[in-house]
């Protein structure tokens, strides 16, 4: 089988450094002055099959900033086929927000009819590669926009791993043609929890597949386990890994995620500005290296 | 291979895990010896996911029914565990987990003497806030044409028409409050205003009957006549004036847009 082409990376609607949209500051962003934020990323599940205040606010936001959708409950790796009704609603939401592509996580979050609302790691097997890749290919047709998968954090691998995380991720991308939403914090957290070199991991990925980069904060548990909490500022080693990544990928949009302990908007804007500095310096080095 | 996903689902939604339970689940789901051995080795970290699943769902519920959860205390945990084990969420949307939990708990709470009799009404009342705030938006704008007895009415607000056995809507918002609501039949119209505020309007039995029938698509004349008859009230001048006041009030609140055009579908 011929490998599908890597997704088209450049999108006129999406570049620079963005911020994950949270209701904590939605009104402030919609009603306030223009912010130095290049785009917002939205969880479509928060707006799908819904009327009222929040969809109206999102419509207003869409008039001011580019939006990109990042889903939570597709459960692409589940044994069962994705929910057709959910996909119809998702397609409508992606279209409403004019998202240049849609992404979700390389994981499963449902078992049969039960939805666990957590990103659960898939067994890294060839069977799961084939299943996810086939669905990701179909999804691009269904949604009508390119589709990207995000590498997740995982605290334990379920059962024996037939493939390493790197092999599993690379194989899925290769066979599906999907883009990679590379979460640098997830790579870093996994490297701490599973003991590998995060730079070697990122270097081994096909950088042409990266369509967006995520960064977020993490927390170390008393047990030593590091959790991807999205509840703290981005740690310095993750910022360094971001720079390392961007030097390889070149200009791909970068997104700051903050879902817990959400601070004042001004603090998040300042963190976006820090990321922008890293983004610009890394791109200079990227261009100098080519 | 699919057995691992099923096993994880049962492990994460089920009772507190133990190595023995994991071994039993491996057998039940026909997990291979090599996978079972790997699962045993990562048992403690797999258990972390159980806490994460519960934490996410519990947080969503606490945003929706905080007063009911506080009043139930440890009993809530018991029913939360049963819900996860015996049914679990089916929805993609966290905001819809509460109605699923309440649907599961309703018959159980009704037969459990430890659960206050008003508790289901209170939980339903709390959950309606998010439900109504998220209902699909209906076409807006007042229609200039007057209502007629021969036509139904066109509703312009997202709403729910509910009945309680207790006046839970009168309880204070304070989560620490433990006062008991009075036991009486309550008919409530919960609707979203044009400004997206969720508002509550208590209805008399006749008014409730009229609204119920209008929502079912009956003509205004039939709705008023049947609602009066159902509540044993004669169709007096006072009842008709009351119905007119109700309709004017609902129109002013943006709940009613005007007469339902001929041939349009029932709003129910």
What does this entry look like structurally?
- The complex is a heterodimer of chains A (290) and B (268).
- With 290 residues, chain A is of the alpha/beta class.
- In chain A, 40% of the residues lie in helices and 17% in strands.
- In chain A, the strands form 3 sheets. An 8-stranded parallel barrel of chain A has the order 1-2-3-4-7-8-9-12, surrounded by 5 helices. Chain A has a two-stranded antiparallel sheet with strand order 5-6. Chain A has a two-stranded antiparallel sheet with strand order 10-11.
- Chain A is globular, with a radius of gyration of 18 Å.
- Chain B contains 11 helices and 5 strands.
- In chain B, strands 2-3-4 form a 3-stranded antiparallel sheet, sandwiched between helices. A two-stranded antiparallel sheet of chain B has the order 1-5.
- Chain B is elongated.
- The mean pLDDT of chain B is 93.
Task: Summarize the helices and strands and which ones pair or pack.
The complex is a heterodimer of chains A (290) and B (268).
Chain A: E1 17-20, H1 26-31, E2 40-42, H2 53-62, E3 67-70, H3 84-97, E4 102-105, E5 108-111, E6 114-120, H4 126-143, E7 147-150, H5 165-176, E8 179-183, H6 184-194, H7 198-204, E9 210-215, E10 219-220, E11 226-227, H8 236-249, E12 254-256, H9 265-289
Parallel strand pairs in A: 1-2, 1-12, 2-3, 3-4, 4-7, 7-8, 8-9, 9-12
Antiparallel strand pairs in A: 5-6, 10-11
Chain B: H1 2-13, H2 19-28, H3 33-41, H4 43-64, H5 66-72, H6 74-86, H7 97-110, H8 119-134, E1 153-155, E2 159-166, E3 183-192, E4 198-203, H9 205-215, H10 220-230, H11 237-252, E5 256-259
Antiparallel strand pairs in B: 1-5, 2-3, 3-4
Structural class of chain A: alpha/beta
Shape of chain B: elongated
Biggest interface goes to:
A-B, 38 and 45 residues
User: How helical, in percent, are the residues of chain A?
Assistant: 40-55%
Total count of helical runs of at least 4 residues of chain A: 9
The number of distinct β-strands of chain B equals: 5
Largest sheet of chain A: 8 strands, parallel, barrel
Distance between the termini of chain B: 46 Å
Number of strands of chain A: 12
Count of individual helical segments of chain B: 11
What is Rg of chain A? 18 Å
CA gyration radius of chain B, whole angstroms? 24 Å
How would you classify the quaternary structure?
heterodimer
Q: Encode the helix/strand succession of chain B as letters.
A: HHHHHHHHEEEEHHHE
Question: Could you give the order of strands across the largest sheet of chain A?
Answer: 1-2-3-4-7-8-9-12
